[in-house]
């Protein structure tokens, strides 16, 4: 089984990454192959709006650090997407990455190029209470669903600005989801 773990937090030990890592760690005994990408440490540009991925290519034509990430999503059985919510949305790093998934949409602008049967785990953390930023969850769930992913969502809310917020519930949930979908 292959897992790609894409982290949008600029903090390598941030809350969203801690939850994502617990998901990965829960599957280590199953012999999974994992590739983790910390977007904040990568050199890439966002989508350029060239639409060549619709007209002349089935993949994004930009050649940078995201090329392998986008390819790994196609080759993975499970994709883990994690980001804190900063200023009402995912981090800028994650948003720039996610814009490049526009290349996953077929030339007809409706179909998905992502092979079927893939699972995704969307992990979002935020300082604010649970009732806020639901639009962020809805937006990324909509896109991942349109790509054909079966999605599990983990939200850690009310974390405040603490670097070591208590997310023991979410870490347990991540482990439970890993056991459920990583069979």
* Radius of gyration from the alpha-carbon trace, in angstroms: 16 Å
Q: Uncertain regions: pLDDT < 50 for 5+ in a row? A: none
| SS elements, strand count | 6
Strand content: 15-25%
Question: What is the CATH class name?
Answer: Alpha Beta
| CATH-defined architecture | 3-Layer(aba) Sandwich
Largest sheet geometry: 6 strands, mixed
Count of structural domains: 1
| CATH topology grouping | Rossmann fold
Residue share in helix: 25-40%
Mean pLDDT: 95
Number of helices: 6
Gap between N and C termini: 9 Å
* CATH-level-4 superfamily name: Flavodoxin domain
Given helix and strand content, the structural type is alpha/beta
Q: Which geometry do the CA atoms define? A: globular
Oligomer: single chain
Order of helices and strands: EHEHHEEHEHEH
Short description:
The chain has 183 residues and is an alpha/beta fold.
Report what the structure shows.
- The protein is α/β, with parallel strands linked by helices and 183 residues long.
- It has one domain: 3-Layer(aba) Sandwich (Rossmann fold), CATH 3.40.50.360.
- The protein contains 6 helices and 6 strands.
- Strands 1, 2, 3, 4, 5 and 6 form a 6-stranded mixed beta sheet that branches.
- The longest helix has 14 residues, at 168-181.
- The radius of gyration is 16 Å and the shape is globular.
- The model has no long low-confidence stretch (mean pLDDT 95).
